[in-house]
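Supplementary Note 2. Why include the ligand at all?

Several targets in our set were suspected to adopt different conformations when bound, so apo predictions alone were not considered sufficient. For every target with a known small-molecule partner we therefore ran a joint prediction. The input for WTA is given below.
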Amino acid sequence: MAARSLGCGVWRLLGSLPGHAGARGWPPRGVSALRRAASGPSGSVPAAGVQPASYPTLRVQAAQQPAAFWGPLAQETLLWDTPYHTVWDCDFSSGKIGWFLGGQLNVSVSCLDQHVRKSPESVALIWERDEPGTEVRITYRELLETTCRLANLLKRHGVCRGDRVAIYMPVSPLAVAAMLACARIGAVHTVIFAGFSAQSLAGRINDAKCKVVITFNQGLRGGRVVELKEIVDEAVKHCPTIQYVLVAHRTDKKVHMGNLDVPLEQLVFDYQPGDIFGCVADIGWITGHSYVVYGPLCNGATSVLFESTPVYPDPGRYWEMVQRLKINQFYGAPTAVRLLLKHGDAWVKKYDRSSLRTLGSVGEPINQEAWEWLHKVVGDSRCTVVDTWWQTETGGICIAPRPSEEGAEILPSMAMRPFFGIVPALMDEKGNILEGGDVSGALCFSQAWPGMARTIYGDHQRFVDAYFKAYPGYYFSGDGAHRTKGGYYQITGRMDDVINISGHRLGTAEIEDAMASHPAVPETAVIGYPHDIKGEAAFAFIVLKDDAGDSDMVISELRSTVATKIAKYAVPDQILIVKRLPKTRSGKVMRRLLRKIILGRTQDLGDTTTLEDPSIITEILSAYQRHKDKKATSQ
Ligand code: WTA
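The joint prediction is reproduced in token form.
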């Protein structure tokens, strides 16, 4: 959503404009131009030592020589895209009023860009909110960013030059940005006092034939709540020209969002201006690219750069950081959640996490126990947990809950809903599209979206083969997914992590999830291996909590858990306790390594350079050797 895309000549203009006198201090710039205008020809710079004109002189000149008076003033105060050729051409007898003929400018550029270029951190607005003593300062940079975002959003919703936009918002920075956003794209705004009734609002919207209304969920005035969105809902029933209602949040109240309604906030993380966004991913991973660097910075957010690990100096590191930095959104990987869960709740509870509002998870399916822990322990059952599904190739989040929407049900361990522009299709093995709910298949997409990969550098054919061959006409993610009756999506894991036990196909993630529901087991990894009778059998690697107790007991409990939760055939034939699982630096379990170890193909482990700690290979190898020896003696 870069301002660059506004296409109103702003950037060209910025590059070519001459410098200006300082914007701050007294007299304001306009006054110095005025004085110069009075002391020389139009727009000329007074010679050193020339005394500025006095106010009486200026008054006389303004009355007698309007062009000489207003011309230099307009030239210096405003930023012209196209210079005017005539300052004025007015005739009251015919009602002709013409000023600055031939000239073109964009007032939002004059209000914002020129100041951002010189002193972006100067405060543009001090918002004295209804709640006493809670003022907010908005810099020119922030105001420009919000304006550009809104301008782009308006354009995306079909608002063109000359269209009318109703702004039904109380005095607030967002209302100011909405005005400037309209000006920026050449739309005409009609700002309607937010105390007007639905009927008065409808009348004004209809007079101007507005295409869009921008409003808040609620307003606050003198401590009273005003149900702005409800009033807009009522009004637009009588406004046939309204195509969209853009809704921002002034309070926490969730309001009904209907067909016309578009939420204005960032949608998955519920990011609000001024929030501290804490994505703890490494920038060497796509999550770091999109949600530490590009996403937050493009949106003018404050982004936390986390250099350390979740357990250094102790397992309280994340939560101590949340308390100290007052992080509002925390975005991390399930692997870290499972690791911390293993260390117990005390490390979390020790710190104040009241700043947190949204807890995001990415990178792997988050099992139910980890989800619940994040929700109940970290989020005190108060924060929203968003399980976000996406891939390096998708550029950004594709399937995720959207907490800012009304009635936004969020179910544990579910990525839930496709994001804007994402059209999923689930395919069966033969490439038929699976319709309706309660179906599982290969997760594909039928339509392109802006952030997706365009090629593989230097090997376009590989790009085509990897993503577009399996299901012609569709992008294939490589993942499997289940769509519920309610139309929600749950990711079941990589398709190549599917095993076939006695003819039953199931994702290894399903078995892992069932086992991880055991209170003593924070992490598991299941792989398939050839079996004479069953075709394939499941082999489970499990990590136990420090205080897990009798491990034989845990193992037998795990077997019955899987049998009850899935089916008897899904119970792993072998279960091996390990201290930790082999993981990549981005936290993904390297199941292929485990498979090779079990298959005895240790000479050909493949590329292990992405392993977080290569010593894990010998650790697992010797644990597996002990396991085999034990089996041999017991037989
Ligand atoms: C997996 C990471 C389940 C999936 C952004 C995907 C997930 C791969 C989720 C991409 C999730 C990511 N639930 N599985 N919420 N998020 N994945 O390229 O298998 O490092 O294809 O991008 O991670 O990993 P990548």
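Residues 286-287, 362-365, 387-392, 415, 477-479, 491, 494, 586 surround WTA (CB under 6 Å). Residues 616-634 form the longest helix (19 residues). Comparable summaries for the other entries are listed in the accompanying table.
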